[in-house]
Design a protein that fits this description.
elongated; two-stranded antiparallel ribbon; mainly alpha; 2 strands
């Protein structure tokens, strides 16, 4: 009988290739699971928000809606009038998107006296 020897060589490139492919596959699985978890979590949070009732927000929106649908004044001194939003939109449509100019007012003279026009500077004589 002839002596046969068994030769054991390590195939290093194959081992490195299997390691790299396994590592990449592991990364794909981890990132895929993380993305799936985040999507499911977002969907559940959104569903809970749709079902829950936020009374404070509902009251705030109702108050704001009522405020823009009635005429009144924007300041306590009652110098800046407001108008309902629907009427304001109609005015903007009629004026082709241009704001109306406020009426020109003359400032009242102090103490009921006439205001004097500012003097023009004198021209130097040649």
């Amino acid at each position: 009988m002839a002596a046969t020897s068994i030769r054991q060589d390590v195939n290093a490139p194959l081992i490195v290739l299997i390691g790299v492919v396994s590592g990449l596959l592991l990364l794909v699985i981890v990132f895929g699971l993380q993305a799936w978890f985040v999507r499911e979590e977002s969907a559940e949070i959104a569903a809970k928000w749709r079902v829950s009732k936020n009374q404070w927000l509902d009251d705030l929106r109702a108050e704001q809606l009522a405020k823009i649908q009635k005429a009144g004044f924007a300041d306590p001194e009652k110098t800046k009038p407001t108008l309902p939003i629907a009427q304001g939109m109609q005015l903007m449509i009629q004026s082709n998107g241009k704001l109306p100019k406020p009426p020109a007012t003359k400032p009242a003279a102090a103490g009921g006296q006439q205001q004097q026009q500012p003097k023009q500077p004198e021209q130097p004589k040649k």
